Amino acid sequence: MSAASGCFLFGAAVTVCDVLLRGLAGRNVPAAIETTSFAIGLGALLSMPVCYALRSHVTAKLLSELMPNRFGRPLGRLGAVASVVFAAMMLGIVGQNTLSKINSPETSRDLGLPMPMLLGVISATLLAALIAALVGLWLEYRKAGA
Fold first, then answer.
1. Which residues on neighbouring strands pair with residue 114, listed in sequence order?
2. What are phi and psi of 35, to 5 degrees?
């Protein structure tokens, strides 16, 4: 989780430096928008596996708070299954795109980073998210059985 936090802080720092440099020197940080976008995007991706495994993502507990014995377990299981399905769909979509661009000469616009490498990092992170979602599902069923 500290890697995700570091990405968010780095993205924020680049933005602050860019704004200060524009105000003080009339210049900007080169590739600030792309750097910030990549940093914050990577931070969001890196937080997914942790949230899935710990089941700490945003939830609404309306029914499970009113009647925890009746709704808590089924809704917890449904949420865990939905997390696995969503993570699998994301990995499938991005994974196909990654495979189609393995030998592509494409690069990012400002930083010139190779797209196959960027997509590979995203796919690897989404694979970790899927594994974590499966762990979260297993823990949800294990908790319910205890």
1. 107
2. -60, -45
